[in-house]
Design goal:
The complex is a heterodimer of chains A (about 110) and B (about 110).
Chain A (H helix, E strand, L loop, with lengths): L2 E4 L3 E5 L4 E3 L1 E4 L6 E6 L5 E7 L5 E3 L5 E5 L4 E6 L8 E8 L7 E3 L3 E6 L1
Parallel strand pairs in A: 2-12
Antiparallel strand pairs in A: 1-4, 3-9, 5-6, 5-10, 7-8, 8-9, 10-11, 10-12
Chain B lengths: L3 E4 L2 E4 L5 E7 L5 E8 L3 E8 L6 E2 L6 E3 L9 E3 L8 E8 L8 E2 L3 E5 L1
Parallel strand pairs in B: 2-11
Antiparallel strand pairs in B: 1-3, 3-8, 4-5, 4-9, 5-6, 7-8, 9-10, 9-11
Classes of the chains: A mainly beta (about 110), B mainly beta (about 110).
Chain lengths: ~110, ~110
């Protein structure tokens, strides 16, 4: 069975400092991994996706993630946090059955202090 | 621009009532999904559809039903609303093949009193 574990339920950073949101995955097959962001009272927006083409994936708004098979990790990073980055972030793995459903981590809430 | 919409955005209902949440997408995607979002659980799959006349149960399907009469719409029905179904509901769609992202609607906040 596939699953993702987000290691922090809440991360707080100061504006201008780096962001690291941690995610470990479990999959019997080569996984398709995603990071989604949800701003307060909004829907989910895709930040980036890993589909085995390259281990370092660049997304929108300066975010990137590195797929590390040896560590079964897919951590999300950003060099410099902005106030607008404050949101809930979800690490997601795509299932190989049930219509390709998405399996979500429990989310990491990112707070950005001025 | 193509989009996915949900209505209503907010709904308050009473226990035992039947409720239908609408989802409409103009991406012309074959796959459509319904998820619910609850604190501590992330998003969980309720039902999904591969195409017209196709529906399938997800991991938390009890008390819910869907129907797919055309490509664009996948309404979610709560047969007899329960307080445990108070949640935020998200509809999503994706193309039928390949490694595709899912596009999400804005969500419906449902409160069952």
């Amino acid at each position: 069975a596939q699953s993702v574990t987000q290691l922090d339920s809440h991360v707080s950073v100061s504006e201008g400092t780096p962001v690291l949101l941690r995610c470990n995955y479990s999959s019997s097959y080569s996984p398709s991994l995603f990071w989604y962001v949800q701003h307060p009272n909004k829907g989910l927006q895709l930040l980036l996706k890993y589909t085995s083409a390259a281990t370092l994936v660049k997304g929108i708004n300066g975010f990137e993630a590195e797929f590390k098979k040896s560590e079964t990790s897919f951590h999300l990073t950003k060099p410099s946090a902005h106030m607008s980055d404050a949101a809930e972030y979800f690490c997601v793995v795509r299932s190989y059955n049930q219509g390709g459903k998405l399996i979500f981590g429990q989310g990491t809430e990112l707070s950005v202090k001025p | 621009d193509a989009e996915i919409t949900q209505s209503p955005r907010h709904k308050i209902t009473e226990t035992g009532r039947q409720v239908t949440l609408a989802c409409h997408q103009t991406w012309n995607h074959n796959n459509m999904f319904w998820y619910r979002q609850d604190l501590g659980h992330g998003l969980r799959l309720i039902h999904y559809s591969y195409g017209v006349q196709d529906t399938n149960k997800g991991e938390v399907s009890d008390g819910y039903s869907v129907s797919r009469s055309n490509t664009e719409d996948l309404p979610l029905t709560l047969e007899s609303a329960a307080s445990s179904q108070t949640s935020v509901y998200f509809c999503a769609s994706s193309e039928s093949t390949g490694i595709d992202e899912q596009f999400f609607g804005p969500g419906t906040r449902l409160t069952v009193l």
